[in-house]
Fold this protein.
Amino acid sequence: MSIFLIPAAMTLVLVLVILFLIIYIYNIQPQRNKYHPIGGTVLNMLINFKRLHHYMTKLAAKYKTFRMISPFHGEIYTTDPAIVEYILKTNFHNYGKGTYTHSLLEDFLGDGIFTVDGAKWREQRKMASHEFSTKVLRDFSGVTFRKNAIQVGHMFSEAATTNQVVDINDLFMKATADSIFKVAFGINLDNLSGSNEEGVRFSRAFDDANELTYNRLVDITWKIKRFLNIGSEAKLKKNLKVVDEFVYKIIRIKREQIMNNSKDVSLQVMKEDILSRFMQMENEDPKYIRDVIMNYVLAGKDPIAATMTWLIYMLCKHPDVQDKVAKDIQEATNMNGEIRNVADFEARVSEEGLERMQYLQATLAETIRLYPALPLDIKICFSDDVLPDGCVVKKGDMIAYMPYAMGRMKFIWGDDAQDFKPERWLDHNGCFRSESPFKFTAFQAGPRTCLGREFAYRQMKIFSCILLGCFVFKLSNANEDPKYRTTINIQLDGPLNVYVYARSGLHIR
Ligand code: HEM
């Protein structure tokens, strides 16, 4: 054992010495150019990895924009809306994924929309923008979301009757996986019912691969580990094998469906899902299709599940807000008469009713402000530049804006920045009022702004309207202070157990 510990300790000491030398050199360099203050080193980030966003928020409260010293390139982290606007919009062409982000994410996400720039990005953006604007997708996804919300509702009814706790984190991860697989690929994943073992295995491996990939951000030895196939990289490889087997199987099934479909024009199978259209219109390379699938799963599953879980958590912590949301739903749906079950409730929720739920919309936005699904977003600088605050950024430097920290900055949101207050999103008439995307950065901004924003809000509104309209939620452990998993998305770590009660006045069975 000690034989291995000595070289490990020596390597650690060497790394520390190199890091401190770099810090020293940075500090004594002639200060002709203006640089952001140093917040720490990547080693500090590694040490604080489990609470990374808390750690970065603390630094941001002190510095607004700061550098973290890394042996390979400059790293700048910002919460300044002026810098965010500059890198995401004003000088968009100078900041992108670059080879650094691409190499971090490539094994997991391949050449999908989240990892590429230039022509490859434009092509996928064009295709995806078209898909997201179609009425077919809107109608098809609406039906799917409602069906899945009813299924979750039935599980809650059961739990309410038997007084059992429910792990909503697990439930929402399964529900959103089912939704995106149905809408994007026309596949019944059936994670909710658990009937599809392969689907469950895929989801687990996907989540682990996501976390292990994010770990590369602070693990400067990941390339060596990958080369030697050891530690976290060996685990990642194993998980990606499970993921790939499942995804390539979907591609084979889809191809067969499309071929059968084209033979028989009366069989209009699955024409609504995004993948079928992609496979009919785009190149047939299975690796390319695999990358498209992986990027859609990442975009469509975790952010919504995470937001829904944080929403219920915040509503349990703020029962007064939970009551106001329920009142908003009640008034917007004008629900009266006997409601026999969740499906009965859902049938009375019209599209116009959903539009009227302004307080619910505000509560969702407030949840996303404090728990943005993507808490930290990285860009690479393509050529030397000067940021709006006069500080220099060099070609190859990484610059990250931090939606999680930004949501907690007093200089952006006022002294009550840390408070959960949906009212901040409402005007004098109680109507939802959006914020500047450079201040509320959860969906990014500029030419690469999130394409699924409306899609996401619709799914979250349908789910929350049906679930919060029918049930009251209470934490099983009122002192619960949940942790997050430091993955690409800010997922709650472990179960979030709640008690569910049928809302009074409704006779949900
Ligand atoms: C609460 C839910 C969501 C949040 C907070 C969110 C946030 C974001 C953010 C921050 C980005 C920029 C990522 C980057 O730098 O590459 C992004 C991009 C994107 N999002 Fe979302 N997203 C959400 C849901 C969705 C959903 C449900 C979909 C689709 C099913 C989706 C599709 C996309 C796509 C395709 C992009 C890539 C845009 C591009 O690079 O041109 N998002 N999203």
Q: What stands out?
A: Residues 113-114, 125, 128, 296, 299-300, 303-304, 307, 368, 372-374, 377, 442-444, 448, 450-452, 455-456 surround protoporphyrin IX containing FE (CB under 6 Å). The two ends are 60 Å apart (CA to CA). Residues 102 and 115 are 5 Å apart (CA to CA).
